[in-house]
Amino acid sequence: MVAKAKRIEAVPPYLFAEIDRKREEAVARGVDVIDLGIGDPDRPTPDHVVERLCREARNPAWHRYPSYVGALDFRKAAAEWLQRRFGVEVDPRGEVITLIGSKEGLAHLIWAYVDDGDVALVPDPGYPVYRTHVLLAGGEPYPLPLKAERGFLPDLEAVPAEVARRAKILFLNYPNNPTAAVADLAFFEEAVAFCRRHDVLLCHDAAYSEITYDGYVAPSVLQVPGAKEVAVEFHSLSKTYNMTGWRIGFAAGNREAITGLGIIKTNTDSGQFTAIQYAGISALLETPAEFIKRMCDLYARRRDLVVDALARLGISVEKPRGAFYVWAPVPAGYTSAGFAAELLERAGVIVAPGTGYGEHGEGFFRISLTTPDDRLEEAMNRLAGLRF
Ligand code: PLP
How does the average pLDDT of the chain come out, rounded? Predict the structure, then answer.
């Protein structure tokens, strides 16, 4: 057998492997398993986006290789969307790049910035891509603990000077996965100032910027004056328009970061199908605000259902104002993995153990609100019968 590259060994073990094994056993026993672990919208993409794809797919010009950095029309639409939504100005030529989903861009940006031994500041718990790709690139992820008592915002002042000196990138993500926490512009101002002071690239993952509740409106890091000097922001059409399967997003901001990302992408993928980018333009510019509001109202109702059901179990959680997750503490005496295993065993319900997102996720579990109402209600009814 040919030995795999050493970097593969750097990839942390897959923490859901044990849950996956238990799920298969339960399904084999005939248990009707309800999966609340995955964050993937259950509702369809809006019709006007699907119609646009059908039309554009017939254009033979799009059957050839797409532009590496993305169709200029898509980049212009992304810039227009940023301007309409946040009042932010970016140049579609050089400050915006089309992505095959924001995950792709986040991963590739790391390869443009992180050399052997470079430090990257990553939220813990956090979306696993940041940490994993820093490890693959030979870098050192430095965990920034997200703690309940700080509203799940990292304490940047607590980063030791020596670590800040070696750091190349700071990752932030608000509204946050997995904690569902939100940030205000003052926090982004602080983060931009930190990055300027230490010459660090601020990479903000805004995948959930439109999924917010109770009147909260998420800011963009690019609203901070001068942010473009140090920051790049990642946007995704996946969650906002129920388009996870389409693989379309964009990055915008610092020109050098966009160029660096472009160099990695040009030499790796060959861009997203142009017809999908045109459908993406319809999503960004032609989706009525009412559609997004309806989705947020739906998630908010599910959030209330889950938070109330957990309260009856003695698990108290504040209602989150962003993202479509509930991040809840496990009952006393359990580890995250132990509690997730117990819910599967006793109720046939899968939740994501907090440790799947980093060691500081210990003591928590995540419920996703992207399961159809009847299944989510059924899951909560099953939990209601349990005592811990
Ligand atoms: N960033 C965060 C925080 C996510 O939770 C996800 C998906 O779950 C992504 C990025 C990836 O989104 P995309 O579908 O655009 O690749």
Answer: 96
| Interval 180-219: pLDDT, tens | 999 999 999 999 999 999 999 999 999 999 999 999 999 9
Q: Is the dihedral of CA 193, 216, 220, 84 positive or negative?
A: negative
Of 102, 124, 182, 269, best ligand 1 pocket probe by most atoms within 8 Å of the beta carbon? 102
Residue 28 alpha carbon to ligand 1 centre in Å: 31
Which distant-in-sequence residues (6+ apart) come within 8 Å of 387 by Cβ?
none
Cα of 78 from ligand 1 centre, angstroms? 17
pLDDT of residue 21: 85
From ligand 1's centre to the CA of 366, what distance in Å? 16
CA 106, CA 271: separation in Å to the nearest integer?
15
Residue 103 alpha carbon to ligand 1 centre in Å: 6
Ligand 1 atom with the shortest distance to the CA of 247: 14
Report residue 223 as tokens: 């609203």
State the alpha helices, DSSP H only, in 141-234: 161-166, 185-198
Q: Are 228 and 254 in contact (CB under 8 A)?
A: yes
Contact 109, 261 (CB under 8 A): yes
Span from the CA of 73 to the centroid of ligand 1 (angstroms): 23
* Distance between start and end Cα atoms, the chain: 48
Enumerate residue ranges in the chain where pLDDT < 50.
none
Residue 220 CA, chain-centre distance (Å), reads 15
179 in ligand 1 pocket by Cβ < 6 Å?
no
Amino acid 23: pLDDT: 87
Contact 41, 371 (CB under 8 A): no
Nearest CA to ligand 1 atom 8: 39
* 14-64 pLDDT per residue, tens: 767 777 888 899 999 999 999 999 899 999 999 999 999 999 999 999 999
Q: Which atom of ligand 1 is nearest to the CA of 102?
A: 15
State the pairing for strand pair 231-236/201-205.
Answer: parallel
CA of 342 to the centre of ligand 1 (A): 28
| pLDDT at residue 388, as a whole number | 84
Tell me, using a 6 A CB cutoff, whether residue 249 lines ligand 1.
yes
- Domains of the chain, first to last: 6-44+290-384 (3.90.1150.10), 47-286 (3.40.640.10)
Give residue 180's pLDDT.
98
